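Need the bound structure for iron/sulfur cluster, inputs here:
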Amino acid sequence: MRTTAARGIPVIQGTVLRFERFAIHNGPGIRTTVFLKGCPLRCAWCHSPESQQLEPEFMPQPERCIECRACTGACPHHAVVPAATADSVAPEVCTVCGECVAACPTGARELVGEVFTVPQLMARIERDRIFYDESNGGVTFSGGEPLMQPAFLHEMVIRCRMSAIHVAVDTCGHADASALLDVAPDTDLFLFDLKVMDEERHRALTGASNVRILQNLERLAAEHPNVLVRFPLIPGVNDDDRNVHAMGAFLASLRLTRVDVLPYHRAGIAKHDRLQRAYPLPDTQPPSADQVTRVVRLLESCGLIVRRGGAS
Ligand code: SF4
Ligand code: SF4
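Answer from helper R.:
Posting the output first, comments after.
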């Protein structure tokens, strides 16, 4: 847990990757989606690799660098070499103060991740309250994985409940059960991502077992009235009949009736490039309408209500 002290009293802080205002695909109505940093999974198709690390990090655009050295001169710790690459900063010295980013005239240096206290984040969320009230919307905490910052998330959902703001939590389910159940009483809607049913395939594709994920979904389905499962459809990766049918049967056994199918897109490729990381699925293409329809029909045959796209 990240904390700082004010008059000797610990203050909970969280790291936010970014905000999406006026979002309409992450729960009902018009919403602010707060993407928290940190994720325990490393999905091969990740479209948000800059969310994986818990701490703020650099996301450079080397093609914009004009080698002016403004960043080098601005750094109070002599931690940066004049180049916009992911390894242009000495991490053992850098305090992530952002001075080099502010000094860069071309936008070649970007720092992703900003630290907020609970009151600071509530103030940001409250800015769009009129839209939530008019549309029966609210706030969605997403990631990364928002439960990677459990104390901060817990405090935020309590504050939102006290302020009568509808809360959705978008989770991959790979979290401590206690952390998940702690936020459940003050969460109106869970968006629960389910990807692969076979444990070894799940481990190969995401870097982690799915045992805890399936157990958490089972527990949540028993204890929370509003759980919507989301299935990211990755052609050639998890859209085979066996996986889709196993998922449908599992959800039906839990009496979870609603599933959103989220078709794969290639937005993560450019971000991997900027972070100088290899993209594991360079040849994978978005599914055709027919491919999506086949998966939808298969899930419907398990008795589920299936939609294409995000929650509303
Ligand atoms: S973030 Fe601050 S400490 Fe880190 S390299 Fe930039 S100026 Fe230096
Ligand atoms: S300030 Fe920006 S443009 Fe200038 S050397 Fe540093 S990264 Fe490159």
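Comments: The domain at 2-55+113-308 is CATH 3.20.20.70 (TIM Barrel). The chain is about 30% helix and 20% strand.
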